[in-house]
């Protein structure tokens, strides 16, 4: 990552995040990978919660609700972290730490959103490797879409998300490794700027943080549409059964 010669905050962030070789430090990589792993029971609970609040909604309507909630959550989170820069006593070091926490929060919200949409499309992702690869590919946007379309044998105009659940473990390991490498490279480059933007003082951080997360959130929603195609009108049978069972055992 290119060093910023005249910005002490940038140098501080880079030393905390990147090693001398320019690669993310191991603890940063581990935090990112943990953040994009959401256990399937939590995904089902998220869908069930939306369903309780909107009992007459079909699958397509639930996905639109998820879109709205996700975008509100990541936009509000970015603005809230940015706003801490105006609070007396919250210096640059503390603000950068909070920005890193916001980055993890963005990843967790994105993973929950993308996996919830996958389930509503009938794609069951109980395998952590497959779900992690899917989330990273979605967050890579067009680049991730092209990689997954190529590896899944789908054309450039076809959705690739439905193939993730059926990919053999060996192929998934190869795919996952390639996606992970590109994801870390692209995500860290983008988040380095976003992290510093949220730490800007005098209220500017609130604007930059919220706007940056909003733009990234919109990109995630667009990429998720490209991955799974048009939303179905009915909840898939297996998922509907699991949700009913959850309701009965609650």
Q: How are the SSEs ordered, and which strands pair?
A:
Layout: H1 8-17, H2 26-35, H3 40-53, H4 59-83, H5 92-120, H6 128-139, H7 142-152, H8 169-198, H9 204-228, H10 237-249
Short description:
With 250 residues, the chain is an all-alpha fold. It has helices spanning 8-17, 26-35, 40-53, 59-83, 92-120, 128-139, 142-152, 169-198, 204-228, 237-249.
Keywords:
10 helices; 250 residues; mainly alpha; disordered N terminus
What do these coordinates show?
By secondary structure, this protein is mainly α. Helix content is 72%, strand content 0%. The protein has ten helices and no strands. The chain has helices spanning 8-17, 26-35, 40-53, 59-83, 92-120, 128-139, 142-152, 169-198, 204-228, 237-249. Helix 3 (40-53) crosses helix 10 (237-249). Residues 1-7, 81-85 and 202-207 have low confidence and may be disordered.
Largest sheet: none
Helix content: over 70%
Number of strands: 0
Radius of gyration: 19 Å
- Content-based structural category: mainly alpha
What series of H and E elements makes up the topology?
HHHHHHHHHH
N-to-C span: 49 Å
